[in-house]
Amino acid sequence: MKKLTLGILFTVCVLPASAGVIKEAQARREVDDAKQALAIMESRAELATYLPELEAYRARIFYNKSAQYLNDGDYDKASFYGVLSANYSKMSVAKGLLAKAEHDKLAALAEGRALEMVPAMLKAAGLKQKGTTGTFSGVYNLKTLYNLKKTPKVEDIPPLVEETKKNFYDIASVAVAQKDVKVTLLAKGRTEDHAAKYADSVKIALMEKGLDAARLTVNTKKGTDGVEVTLDGVKTR
Prior knowledge:
CATH 3.30.1330.60; 2 domains; alpha+beta; 13% strand
């Protein structure tokens, strides 16, 4: 009888207290899990523009509720909102990853199509591809550069023909988009001064489109008036 009484007292007094402790501990774990899941979501900077707003918003709101209920000692609600918050954080990251993957896939397709257009674009600008290599080259004479038939005085060299300038803009846009492309100018003229002036005309046009001067190699020498523009390392696929 004595043993039975002790057993009843243990059941009535000790087990409820233990159950309460376990329940609080479980709630704290689940609120802590929600906090960690939310921190992981917030740390994914590369997904910032892809995270679905609704799920991310709910993850934050439900975590705040779970923390508040935990502080208030309402462990059932703390646990409930903690689990909800963690699930929404994970759901948000998953959807963000899917959205980014889809964006990257479309971007890759767009880039591939853009690369396929490069040869035609450079050809229209006056450059020819050497075989199937990434080298494109073209020579611009006085007619195409300045609409001149004969060599002028250096001080009388006019601005570039607008249509040719637009061609150089197209050439520069390819080089700007493809950072590994090397651009070489070989300017020839009746004198070194003529060649230098021709080279400057083309160089300035390329730089106006954003091409860094450090990526340009310029050579000048005496010869038939004109400028040869060469691009090496162009990607076409």
